[in-house]
């Protein structure tokens, strides 16, 4: 540099500075490339609570653009248009597109995640078989549309009740979908159990972990705290040790979680749309992005025979997730009380499966 003249030296320094700035800008641009949008399908009217959460990143992350497809029945077409208008009016930066339709083929085209909230609710005077028959027809048709038009690796979450059996029907009529890609929502029950423990102990819900929901998303489900823990100032402590009341944990705690949905309907005169939507986001987020180390969650998944549960049921297990895959937590000790509860809810699912197949025939 000492051989350069008085004019050349500043020019060289300026050139070096310019090249450095270009390099930094290139690296910064590379690191901040916007991700390709993920297309999420939401069916049914609880979707009104769910779609803004998805659009704002609660399901797939704060930096993940999304395209939302909404599917509903023909009588709800105008209301669906209104939801689309509201999403547009919200001007959410992550939202890259909205499709609102009553056509299952259009709704399923290219979707990466499907959240199946729509279903036929049980009405006064209806038998279980009547409700099952209606839902079998709905999920048979939607399974066909998803299999033919969704992305091959599409992840499916069934929320509509009976959630476990609806998911099983969907799996039966989308045979090319991997069994691991079809799940049902028991995260709502899992979160309810976390909430009950946190209130009982007066601790933050984020400090409670590893409750388990076994079985059916119904009044036979088994909320289990035998392996649950709380992070305290003195380290991790078991929930049973801290609650120090087995009578409450084995009775009132279980029935409160089992019947929480009915209690909310009684109080609100409406179903628990907000908490169901939030839990659906939690379910998919952990499935796609992974569960925290040392923590498991509850998901309704296809049984492989773990814990003596009949293979071929969609049953809620404790699972961990990594790289978009869930795995059932193995090796948990099951006492006699838990065994009876787990088997009772499995028995109900076997009966539901038989009922669903009789509707098909």
UniProtKB/TrEMBL annotation:
Superkingdom of source: Eukaryota
The entry's keywords: NAD, Oxidoreductase, Tricarboxylic acid cycle
Keyword Manganese attributed: no
Keyword Ribonucleoprotein in record: no
UniProt-listed GO biological process terms: malate metabolic process; tricarboxylic acid cycle
Active-site residues, record numbering mapped to chain: 217
Stretches assigned to the Lactate/malate dehydrogenase N-terminal domain: 40-182
CDD domains for the chain: MDH_cytoplasmic_cytosolic (cd01336)
Protein EC: 1.1.1.37
Xref: Pfam families: Ldh_1_C (PF02866), Ldh_1_N (PF00056)
Domain Lactate/malate dehydrogenase C-terminal intervals: 186-354
Classification via InterPro entries: L-lactate/malate_DH, Lactate/malate_DH_C, Lactate/malate_DH_N, Lactate_DH/Glyco_Ohase_4_C, Malate_DH_AS, Malate_DH_NAD-dep_euk, Malate_DH_type2, NAD(P)-bd_dom_sf
Protein name: Malate dehydrogenase
Organism: Capsicum baccatum (Peruvian pepper)
């Amino acid at each position: 540099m000492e051989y350069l003249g008085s004019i050349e030296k500043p020019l060289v320094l300026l050139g070096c500075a310019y090249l450095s700035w270009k390099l930094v800008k290139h690296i910064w641009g590379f690191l901040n490339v916007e991700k390709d949008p993920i297309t999420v399908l939401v069916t049914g009217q609880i979707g009104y609570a769910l779609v803004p959460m998805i659009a704002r990143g609660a399901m797939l992350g704060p930096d993940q653009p999304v395209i939302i497809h909404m599917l509903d029945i023909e009588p709800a077409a105008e209301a669906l248009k209104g939801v689309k208008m509201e999403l547009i009016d919200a001007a959410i930066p992550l939202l890259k597109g909205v499709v609102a339709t009553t056509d299952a083929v259009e709704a399923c085209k290219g979707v990466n995640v499907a959240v199946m909230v729509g279903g036929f609710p049980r009405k006064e005077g209806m038998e279980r078989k009547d409700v099952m028959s209606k839902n079998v027809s709905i999920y048979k048709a939607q399974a066909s549309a998803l299999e033919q038009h969704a992305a091959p690796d599409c992840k499916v979450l069934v929320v509509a009740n009976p959630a476990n059996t609806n998911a099983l029907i969907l799996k039966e009529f989308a045979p090319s979908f991997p069994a691991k890609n079809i799940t049902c929502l028991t995260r709502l029950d899992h979160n309810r159990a976390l909430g009950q423990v946190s209130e009982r102990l007066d601790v933050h819900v984020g400090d409670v972990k590893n409750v388990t929901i076994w079985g059916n998303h119904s009044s036979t489900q088994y909320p289990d705290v035998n392996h649950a823990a709380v992070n305290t100032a003195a380290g991790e402590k078991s929930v049973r040790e801290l609650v120090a009341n087995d009578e409450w944990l084995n009775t009132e705690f279980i029935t409160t979680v089992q019947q929480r949905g009915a209690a909310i309907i009684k109080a609100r005169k409406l179903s628990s749309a907000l908490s169901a939507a939030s839990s659906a986001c939690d379910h998919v987020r952990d499935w796609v992005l992974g569960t925290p180390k040392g923590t498991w969650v509850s998901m309704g998944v296809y049984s492989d025979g773990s814990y003596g549960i009949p293979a071929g049921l969609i049953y809620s297990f404790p699972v961990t997730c990594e790289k978009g895959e869930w795995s059932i937590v193995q090796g948990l000790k099951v006492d006699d009380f838990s065994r009876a509860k787990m088997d009772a809810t499995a028995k109900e699912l076997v009966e539901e499966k038989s009922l669903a197949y009789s509707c098909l025939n």
